[in-house]
């Protein structure tokens, strides 16, 4: 029983980590309707930035976040402005896919050129210390990630529902032409949204860096899981992504222990394929979001 | 530049351009074979063998990713299956020449099982699903160590000779790689120039219009995937023997899959020779970066790839082939005088001899949520009859059409069609309706935008003519009849709305239907065109075709229809001869409101 609870706790903590990576991805998809295949590389860039700031200036990684988050916002905004925006009216979807795949490839290999294939360990500054929570033990850093993910979900909900900018973003997502007629600058909205989505993963990267070593390919693993989470939670749904992430975290931890750690991914991606094929609107969606499937 | 462009439009120069393109292609192919033989350098051989393999893989990918528009980023699955099948069987003493076919067989089975449920996913989601399958295969290959050797990989037992595809010198490997590349190019060329290729592109451009033209969209895409998977697997077998060592990370690699797709994109996605050009230009960059710069520049070639990929999608989304075709003269409208569409004989007055029933509609009911869109609709269509279907907006006309052509299933009721032999059939899918000779147009035109006018009509003509030559002839004939003769070589996307409406009718006419469902083909076209369209429909009817036409242009309805059905709120409220129907108080009320009915 104790082992089960411990694995459950590990799963929830892992889920928090997946959530903080996936939230930005689902936000961008929900508003701009583009799947950002370079999202994992945004995470990787953020982790290297955190690594450089903590080792170079001897900062605490969480303080480094104050610089990493705006940096990632700029990276995201630039991506939208100069890569995605010119392609928004493209007739075929494949150009948008290849655009972000190209960005992903370029960023990953740039990191390989600069840092080499070796891993880069961000100083831990105590966040790897264990905390006893009732019958289970978790890392302090994991708790902060979970807290940050929950705060991000609530904060984004509030932002979207209560602020003028948030309303403008939702309006643009629901009907771009009508939003334009209401005087909303849709291009600016897309640039800001992409920036916010990237900033979310920027926050995630500063929190994750002390727990996981950075490497040029670190984003690939996380982004594949993030895709799973986003589809599971219903495309574009931030809260759905959070619960999807927790679920996948638990599945990952459980299957790692009970089935075999080398088959975890097969289980996770197997679930992904089943959901994608049988219920592409996601597990939690009440509203039909089936824009991506034929009837 | 402009002078050159204008002088080139004359036909002999165009032929010369074509000849130059053929010559260029042969030069590229000869170069791939002869340069390494001439230089006789190990490294050069290696580069050119790699070019052949990537060009072949990319060409095979393009059959699915380009022609069919299903963007697979997991194609290494098939390559990996071929590689493992080849090596495992070779280590059991079976020659890879047989192993490659075993691998291809497994790959085809996997491809069908994997693709079938995924085809309903659009663009990025199909790509995600293929990535997920690739990951599952990689993880399984790592897990089942007893078969695959796991993460440590597998060496082939070094038996040298042609029967093992393993050689001391490089030339035989180049010959095999080159030959396999030719096979892939030939397959791509044949598919693109046969009915299958037209069907694939049509399905990619507009799935519903392709279905209406009688294309079994699932079947043609499964065929494309099967061919592509089989070729990829055979290449995987050869590449594994060439590398003499395989491991899951290399055989089921996402990066490798992206590279395959990337060469096709850069060369020209959906074109026959684009993938070849992409590989010829980009593979040397990789191999030089790897070979010449070595460990210092690790990541350099990938970085260059990524940048090139972004630049290509931004500035030349049609790839190198797109650039080359811009050098060639633009296809101008043919200077052929437009033959007026065949005018119908003046109508024989008092036509009452409507033939036997060809379509029976009984008790159709359809609900969309709480909305009763079709309420107990029933009627019979006779041979050689034009049945006008009118009614205010939202009456359920298009929904009824969708049920009459298999695009929607009715909740209750049935649609039966009499086949050519005279038996009554109960078709259920668009394909079955098309097979029985029911053709339809769409209210919102659905051209295959990337195809020429001629190719658009050919998609319909293939329904009756399996051979490209016959279909082209039939398409030209239909185009002339529809007044589209001068535009045969133009891309459909460049037609005006009137032209697109005519194209819509031409495509369905080329199917030589027995029953024609026309959905507002006259909306938004000018008076002269309406007159021409009316004449055309009458001439079609006089060949024995039965027509149901949804139409708002009353002038047309009145002069065309033998009989009119009025639909309002899903119900038939009036039926009969045109004159009597339009004076029916119920009909006036439905259109104009109560006051007018009493006026």
From TrEMBL, chain A:
Keywords: Amino-acid transport, Cell membrane, Membrane, Transmembrane, Transmembrane helix, Transport. It is a multi-pass membrane protein. The keyword Transport applies. Its main location: membrane. GO terms for cellular component: plasma membrane. Pfam families: BPD_transp_2. One of its GO terms (molecular function) is transmembrane transporter activity. One of its GO terms (biological process) is amino acid transport. It comes from the Bacteria. It is found in: Cell membrane. The chain crosses the membrane at residues 12-39, 59-78, 98-121, 141-160, 188-209, 221-254, 266-285. PANTHER family: AMINO ACID ABC TRANSPORTER PERMEASE PROTEIN (PTHR11795:SF445), BRANCHED-CHAIN AMINO ACID TRANSPORT SYSTEM PERMEASE PROTEIN LIVH (PTHR11795). Belongs to the binding-protein-dependent transport system permease family. LivHM subfamily. This is Branched-chain amino acid ABC transporter permease. It comes from Paracoccus alkanivorans.
UniProtKB/TrEMBL annotation, chain B:
Signal peptide: none annotated. Residues 359-594 form the ABC transporter domain. Keywords: ATP-binding, Cell membrane, Membrane, Nucleotide-binding, Transmembrane, Transmembrane helix, Transport. SUPFAM superfamilies: P-loop containing nucleoside triphosphate hydrolases (SSF52540). It comes from the Bacteria. GO terms for cellular component: plasma membrane. The chain crosses the membrane at residues 20-37, 43-64, 76-94, 100-119, 126-144, 174-191, 222-246, 258-283, 303-324. GO terms for molecular function: ATP binding; ATP hydrolysis activity; L-isoleucine transmembrane transporter activity; L-phenylalanine transmembrane transporter activity; L-valine transmembrane transporter activity. InterPro entries: AAA+_ATPase, ABC_AA/LPS_Transport, ABC_transp_permease, ABC_transporter-like_ATP-bd, BCA_ABC_TP_C, LivM-like, P-loop_NTPase. PANTHER family: AMINO ACID ABC TRANSPORTER ATP-BINDING PROTEIN, CONSERVED COMPONENT OF ABC TRANSPORTER FOR NATURAL AMINO ACIDS-RELATED. This is ATP-binding cassette domain-containing protein. It comes from Paracoccus alkanivorans. The lineage of its organism: Bacteria, Pseudomonadati, Pseudomonadota, Alphaproteobacteria, Rhodobacterales.
